[in-house]
Design goal:
alpha+beta; Beta-lactamase; 2 domains; 3-stranded antiparallel sheet; 12 helices; 11% strand; globular; binds glutamine
Length: 304
């Protein structure tokens, strides 16, 4: 496949397209990002790296971090995790409180905020130094020890985390949070404030495209059953109440974040990341979705 030619074509198409959407401003520090940033990187199992634009510039990974925390929690506690968090699409916004009340504090899936907060609780219970080990995990799968948290984004979200604190309190009232609320919230905000480039995220996501193995050294990071589960959850829940639309238009498992990133994979083929900060009303990168739709259309390949 001529991936670089296809990416070049996507870059030209995007330069002609009128950009719509809004930067996430409920985390004030994210609102400072230049809305014209645009990068895309594809890492093919058989033929290596391709990309364009701001593909090497770091951005806030936000909810894309939920894929990494899920992977770590599954490795720590296995399938019993899924007695505390379900695996059904929510059909609701990422930070919604409504379902939790009538579903007795069990979040619909690990990628809405409530679910990711339960996962953070599992990490706090099972790791000695969860923040450090979370970052170490990312260093390992991306092969890059320079990846860090953006302290300003971390502090900025901390000041405006009332809704996530509300989710935690509600779940704690149902007995589904075991640790101190502040500690769990702190880890969750920390993981969201990690900064990575399209190039780095794509390399990290290779484990999901490559049957759970790192491509660089063949080390199995998560079992093949684990990969089946994580990719299925990305497919059905990776875009909140727009997961159906993403499947319909793009046809790949993936995960978005309010920093404007979308990482996706084609199992056995490639991992790919797009970054463009303007978000559509559902909180997913508008240009990112379009670029990935063009990728699967121009290659003629999706998972379907
Ligand atoms: N840190 C953000 C929050 O909890 C992540 C949301 C997202 O990327 N969708 O609101």
């Amino acid at each position: 496949m001529k991936y670089q030619e296809i990416l070049n074509e996507i870059e030209i198409e995007l330069s002609k397209k009128l950009k719509s959407g809004k930067i996430a401003s409920y985390i004030p520090e994210l609102a400072k990002i230049d809305q014209n940033k645009l990068g895309m990187h594809l890492y093919c199992i058989n033929s290596g790296h391709y990309g364009f634009g701001d593909e090497k510039e770091k951005f806030s990974i936000q909810s894309i971090s939920k894929v990494f925390s899920l992977t770590m929690a599954m490795n720590l506690v296995g399938d019993k995790l899924f007695s505390r968090v379900d695996v059904e699409p929510s059909g609701d916004p990422f930070n919604s409180l409504v379902q939790l009340e009538y579903e007795n504090g069990i979040p619909r899936n690990p990628f809405i905020n409530a679910g990711a907060l339960v996962i953070a609780d599992v990490l706090v219970s099972n790791l000695e130094n969860p923040k450090k080990e979370f970052l170490n995990f990312i260093h390992k799968i991306s092969g890059d020890d320079s990846i860090r948290v953006n302290d300003k984004v971390f502090e900025s979200e901390k000041k405006f985390s009332h809704r996530n604190a509300a989710l935690l309190n509600l779940m704690k009232s149902f007995g589904n949070i075991q640790n101190d609320i502040e500690t769990v919230l702190d880890l969750y905000i920390y993981q969201c404030a990690i900064e990575m480039s399209c190039h780095e995220l794509t390399t990290a996501f290779m484990i999901y495209a490559n049957g759970g193995k790192m491509l660089s050294n063949n080390i199995q990071v998560i079992s093949t059953t684990g990969i089946k589960r994580i990719n299925a959850i990305m497919q059905t829940c990776g875009f909140y109440d727009e997961a159906g639309e993403f499947s319909f238009r793009v046809g790949l498992p993936g995960k978005s974040g309010v920093g404007g990133g979308i990482a996706a994979i084609h199992p056995g083929q490639y991992a790919v990341t797009v970054w463009s900060p303007l978000l559509n009303p559902k909180g997913n990168s508008a240009v990112g979705m379009y670029a990935l739709e063009r990728l699967t259309t121009l290659t003629g390949l999706s998972i379907f």
